[in-house]
Structure to design on (845 residues):
């Protein structure tokens, strides 16, 4: 399936691609430097700086850009501007350490006027009593009244920060984060509205450093806790916002040097470490004083290189961004000045040499090399990265087959598999032309040749494809083309899936992506912006889906499931755009709309395409928009027939249900045979290297996570069909010893009680004593039958009406984690939503 999405920061500008039927994990994305930084600075020596507002996820792109859940068609990227290359933000976890008193004030008014009405101590008190999110909201709303951040107000807040800094206790119990955030936002707003906010002088810089100095002179900022991390990441950001990076180079170095893998237990500390990498060690290089400081005293630069090499084990895990950002920063620093190049050049080479391609360390090589090629390209021979895309292609995609006007570059396809893919593409040509009934290529459209980049798996696709082809990677493939430019090569990029026997040579979306290419040559005149100037998403993406499934003789099981829901009238689908459609509306519903129109109203389709082929998109839109709601009732009835089996392909359609209990998934097969024959074989791929040929097996995973479960059914005529779905499982239960207390309702440290039971409406009560110094209590329930909800109360017997924490999922797998509990007796209960028995309760602290 495919989503054609505009890449707003891609200079060339056309994209089309495929979404997955199963969950697609977002790829690591390069973040654009703060918008103010890119617009305000053209050289490392520019003094001004502007911090970026916080975001909910990775800022920016995979170079060129991230498009969630899509595989799409785009023009080849032009030379990447600096805005496309940067460090990556982490998804910040929930704030930790906010004082209860402040949390209770979350409902207080939070408008620019509330801040503008206050000065001095009144402003300070209001900021401290606000939530962090309230202060953060001023990144956008503060522009309505920039006077909120006049220097006099900033000085008052900086003075209050100084009062708290010397006594910083490692958390936000005093409201220190809100003060830091206010100063951050002030620098941002003043940068964009200097006339209204007024000038910031050296007096403010001195006030801010006078506040930060005592904090860094203490020891609690080094606590490896979430409570400290949530404050520290903001403090580090402020050092960059205030443009005082040189002063705190030693603090940055210490943060990098002291990091180890134990930090993974403190997500906020992970964010604090990345704050160093994302702010001062990326955007801070625009400050000439900082660059000169690091060149004169390269201790921090050496620590950066050491960090990248020492922590390569992070690659492939949830904190991989730390390692690749270290490579990003180091390579960028090498290009900031001749003195910096002298210091950093051998370190960049050392990092590159430590991360061979096609190893678990390959991502570090790619990210470091891309930065070095852009910022320090004069040393490309020294680094061995001249013409980096060609080098990566030769190593990662060594297998090649020229298939008429198509060049297939593959990572792992054998000669026979390349031939299979080629033959499928050749035959697809005739199928496509028979469907759209074109009269040959659109005049003056170029891109008559196309290159296929076929990677062996999702990981390598994510790691290498963007650096070779300029595509986004949080998807299952993408086609990049601009048929109006004779100098641009059309490219379509995709990868293999081990379970994917339905696609030729297991190349996922091979035929889908090729449809986008053909559509751009024979149906859609002009650039992508022109093609999408009207709501024609239903056609662009629906056609690729329809051709892919119909040509291969496969059933679109997602579309059949959606048909039964009757979510959208046809007239609504005709108005689909990339802005108003999620992946479900784009792909399965696009398939249904195209199939209905092609099979029930082909004359309308031809009338539309006649206009599209001459670049008259308003005219083409008028054809189907003019239908209005007149086909809606027939479309609705047709959906019933489809859902009932009329739209199933001849042969077997693999269908199944899943049930998850902890780490175990059980499947229930309900496949359908259409036409002659009967289903004779079932093959399951569980996405972790395990498989089964039983009809209804169960499988227990070794680790928590999301996995693709795929069923392939084969009939007596040798035809087969494959359907995947995604399951998410929890970690297998830890085998803990039985609690030793003589009372059967008493829990203990790192122990379990088995055989817990209760009848519906009743509770099974337990308790535990927590000693002083306990930082985290985790309570879990697993096994048995029925549904039992888990409740925790710090003060009295826990119940559905008296609890401070709970877990209420269906079944018996529940988990509650309590942080920083005080010493004393604490109370648990398992409430029987239905009769339950055989449940095991564990407590860990």
């Amino acid at each position: 399936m495919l989503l054609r999405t505009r890449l707003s920061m891609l200079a060339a500008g056309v994209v089309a691609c495929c979404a997955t039927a199963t969950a697609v994990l977002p790829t690591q994305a390069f973040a654009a430097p703060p918008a103010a930084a890119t617009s305000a600075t053209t050289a490392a020596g520019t003094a001004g700086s502007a911090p970026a507002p916080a975001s909910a996820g990775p800022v920016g792109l995979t170079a060129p850009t991230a498009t969630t859940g899509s595989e799409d068609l785009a023009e080849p990227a032009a030379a990447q501007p600096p805005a496309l290359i940067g460090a990556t933000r982490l998804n910040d976890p929930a704030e930790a350490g906010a004082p209860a008193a402040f949390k209770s004030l979350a409902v207080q008014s939070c408008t620019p006027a509330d801040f503008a009405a206050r000065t001095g101590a009144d402003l300070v008190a209001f900021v401290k009593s606000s939530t962090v999110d309230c202060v953060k909201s001023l990144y956008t709303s503060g522009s309505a009244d920039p006077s909120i951040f006049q220097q006099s107000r900033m000085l008052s807040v900086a003075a209050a920060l100084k009062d708290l800094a010397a006594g910083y206790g490692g958390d936000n119990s005093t409201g220190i984060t809100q003060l830091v955030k206010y100063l951050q936002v002030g620098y941002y707003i003043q940068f964009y509205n200097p006339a209204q906010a007024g000038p910031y002088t050296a007096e403010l810089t001195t006030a801010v450093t006078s506040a930060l100095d005592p904090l860094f002179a203490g020891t609690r900022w080094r606590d490896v806790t979430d409570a400290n991390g949530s404050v520290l990441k903001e403090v580090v950001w402020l050092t960059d916002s205030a443009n005082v990076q040189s002063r705190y180079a030693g603090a940055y170095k210490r943060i990098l040097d002291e990091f180890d893998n134990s930090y993974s237990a403190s997500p906020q500390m992970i964010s604090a470490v990345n704050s160093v990498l994302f702010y001062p060690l990326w955007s801070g290089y625009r400050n000439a004083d900082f660059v000169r400081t690091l060149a004169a005293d390269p201790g921090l630069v050496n620590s950066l290189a050491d960090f990248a090499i020492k922590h390569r084990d992070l690659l492939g895990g949830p904190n991989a961004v730390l390692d690749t950002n270290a490579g990003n920063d180091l390579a960028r620093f090498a290009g900031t000045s001749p003195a910096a190049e002298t210091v950093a050049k051998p370190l960049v080479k050392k990092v590159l040499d430590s991360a061979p391609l096609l190893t678990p360390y390959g991502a570090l090589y790619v990210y470091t090399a891309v930065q070095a090629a852009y910022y320090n390209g004069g040393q490309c021979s020294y680094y061995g990265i001249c013409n980096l895309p060609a080098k990566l292609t030769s190593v990662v995609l060594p297998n090649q087959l020229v298939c008429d006007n198509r060049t297939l570059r593959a990572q792992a396809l054998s000669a026979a598999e390349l031939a299979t893919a080629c033959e499928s593409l050749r035959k697809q040509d005739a199928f496509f032309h028979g469907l759209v009934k074109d009269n040959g290529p659109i005049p003056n459209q170029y891109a008559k040749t196309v290159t296929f980049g076929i990677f062996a798996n999702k990981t390598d696709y994510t790691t290498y494809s963007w650096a070779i082809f300029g595509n986004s990677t949080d998807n299952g493939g993408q086609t990049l083309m601009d048929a109006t430019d004779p100098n641009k090569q059309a490219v379509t990029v995709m990868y293999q899936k081990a379970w994917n026997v339905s696609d030729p040579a297991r190349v996922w979306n091979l035929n889908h992506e090729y449809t986008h290419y053909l559509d751009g040559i024979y149906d859609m005149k002009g650039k992508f912006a022109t093609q999408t100037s009207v709501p024609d998403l239903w056609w662009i993406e629906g056609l690729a889906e329809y051709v892919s499934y119909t040509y291969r003789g496969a059933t679109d099981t997602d579309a059949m499931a959606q048909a039964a829901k009757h979510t959208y009238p046809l007239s609504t689908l005709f108005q689909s755009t990339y802005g108003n459609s999620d992946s479900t509306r784009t792909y399965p519903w696009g398939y249904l709309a195209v199939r209905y129109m092609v099979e029930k109203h082909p004359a309308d389709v031809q009338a539309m395409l006649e206009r599209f082929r001459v670049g008259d998109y308003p005219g083409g839109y008028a054809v189907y928009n003019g239908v209005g709601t007149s086909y809606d009732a027939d479309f609705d009835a047709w959906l019933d027939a489809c859902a009932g089996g009329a739209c199933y392909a001849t042969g077997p359609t693999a269908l199944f249900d899943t049930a998850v209990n902890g780490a175990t998934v059980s499947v229930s097969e309900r496949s359908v045979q259409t036409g002659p024959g009967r289903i004779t074989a079932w093959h399951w791929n569980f996405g972790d290297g395990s498989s089964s040929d039983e009809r209804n097996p169960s499988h227990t995973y070794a680790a928590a996570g999301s996995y693709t479960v795929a069923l392939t059914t084969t009939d007596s005529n040798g035809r087969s069909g494959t359907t995947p779905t995604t399951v998410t499982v929890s970690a297998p239960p830890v085998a803990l010893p039985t609690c030793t207390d003589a009372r059967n309702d008493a829990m203990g440290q790192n122990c379990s009680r088995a055989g817990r039971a209760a009848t519906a409406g009743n509770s099974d009560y337990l308790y535990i004593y927590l000693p002083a110094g306990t930082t985290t209590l985790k309570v879990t329930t697993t096994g048995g039958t029925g549904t039992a909800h888990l409740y925790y109360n710090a003060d009295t017997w826990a119940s559905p009406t008296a609890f401070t924490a709970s877990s209420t999922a269906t079944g018996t797998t529940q988990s509650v984690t309590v942080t920083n509990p005080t010493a004393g007796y604490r109370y648990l209960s398992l409430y029987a939503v239905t009769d339950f028995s055989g449940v095991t309760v564990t407590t860990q602290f």
The radius of gyration is 30 Å.
